[in-house]
């Protein structure tokens, strides 16, 4: 109860800056997946978004520079990057349209923002960015434990699920914290690989649990609108099933005949698009 009152008091007196970025997919289905997840972030948290051709190194830098000019120490900033990342053994980069952005560059831009910060890197190889981004007053969440986990990740989808599912609010204070959303997404990610009977290729990490527990990512009431609608609740459940099927299909791509893979993927993406359209109405 005291934590809930504290969070509400902070929300009333401090500004809350949020930005979600969909990185370069490289394939139409990845582009759609990343853009859809970023759109969900906007609905659930009110985040500004950068997607498609607008998601460039220059536009990301400009958005963070704007926040730097406005933010104060009592404010909060949540930056969510969803997409592909690379790591060459020394430098992590987030893949964008045009030049990529390195973890060091991102850290230098974030260092100019005086607000408390949450950075969520739902990308492959994102563990390679953890050390460069580490700073007092900043929570860093990565989908992988190191830069060597280079396969596409499913953590981002479950992170969004955690922001809409009331079950993630384990302390029942009507706010889902960064730690609660992280624990939810990590457990769901682990369950996904166990269900598929595959060796997990991603292991999410969070570097500051104490600050993360005090960092409210979303208010449960706002996140539950769709879940409170019985029809949309069923659609959300089916959406989760389809996305799990797409991820499983991608994992089995090498062992699936190309024509069969394309046919199955197209059918799943079409159903997913129709469901999303219904959910948006």
Describe this structure in words.
About 40% of the residues are buried. This protein folds into two domains: about 220 residues, 3-Layer(aba) Sandwich (Rossmann fold); about 55 residues. α5 links the parallel β7 and β8. The N terminus is likely disordered. It has eleven helices and eleven strands. With about 280 residues, the chain is an alpha/beta fold. It has a six-stranded mixed β-sheet with strand order 2-1-3-7-8-10, sandwiched between helices. The radius of gyration is 18 Å and the shape is globular. The protein starts with a helix and ends with a helix.
Comma- or semicolon-separated keywords:
globular, 2 domains, 49% helix, 6-stranded mixed sheet, 281 residues, disordered N terminus, 11 helices, alpha/beta, Rossmann fold, 3-stranded antiparallel sheet
**Could you please say which CATH topology of the largest domain applies here?**
Rossmann fold
Radius of gyration: 18 Å
Instruction: Give the termini distance in whole angstroms.
Output: 35 Å
Task: Give the helix tally.
Answer: 11
Quick recap:
With about 280 residues, this protein is an alpha/beta fold. The chain contains eleven helices and eleven strands.
List the helices and strands and how they pair.
Blueprint: H1 2-13, E1 16-22, H2 28-45, E2 48-50, H3 57-70, E3 76-83, E4 85-87, E5 92-94, E6 101-102, H4 103-110, E7 116-123, H5 130-133, E8 138-142, H6 155-164, E9 175-177, H7 178-195, E10 205-206, H8 209-214, E11 216-219, H9 220-223, H10 230-251, H11 258-280
Parallel strand pairs: 1-2, 1-3, 3-7, 7-8
Antiparallel strand pairs: 4-5, 5-6, 8-10, 9-11
Helix pairs in contact: 2-6, 6-7, 10-11
């Amino acid at each position: 109860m005291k934590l809930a009152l504290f969070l509400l008091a902070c929300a009333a007196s401090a500004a809350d800056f949020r930005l979600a970025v969909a990185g370069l997919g490289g394939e139409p289905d990845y582009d759609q997946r990343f853009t859809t997840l970023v759109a969900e972030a906007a609905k659930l948290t009110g985040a500004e978004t950068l997607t498609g051709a607008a998601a460039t190194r220059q536009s990301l830098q400009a958005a963070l520079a704007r926040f730097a000019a406005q933010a104060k120490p009592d404010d909060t900033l949540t930056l969510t990057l969803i997409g592909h990342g690379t790591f060459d053994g020394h430098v992590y980069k987030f893949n964008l349209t045009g030049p990529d952005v390195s973890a060091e560059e991102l850290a230098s831009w974030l260092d100019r923002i005086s607000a408390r910060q949450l950075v969520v890197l739902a990308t492959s190889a994102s563990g390679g960015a953890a050390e460069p981004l580490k700073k007092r007053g900043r929570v860093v969440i990565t989908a992988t434990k190191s830069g060597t986990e280079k396969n596409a990740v499913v953590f981002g989808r479950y992170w969004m699920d955690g922001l809409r599912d009331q079950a993630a609010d384990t302390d029942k204070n009507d706010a889902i914290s960064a730690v609660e959303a992280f624990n939810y997404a990590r457990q769901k990610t682990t369950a996904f690989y166990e269900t598929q009977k595959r060796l997990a290729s991603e292991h999410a990490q969070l570097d500051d649990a104490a600050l993360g527990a005090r960092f409210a990512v979303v208010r449960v009431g706002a996140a539950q609108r769709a879940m409170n609608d019985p029809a949309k609740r069923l659609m959300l459940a089916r959406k989760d099933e389809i996305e799990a099927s797409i991820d499983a299909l991608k994992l089995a791509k090498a062992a699936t005949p190309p024509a069969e893979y394309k046919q199955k993927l197209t059918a799943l993406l079409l159903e997913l698009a129709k469901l999303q359209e219904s959910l948006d109405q």
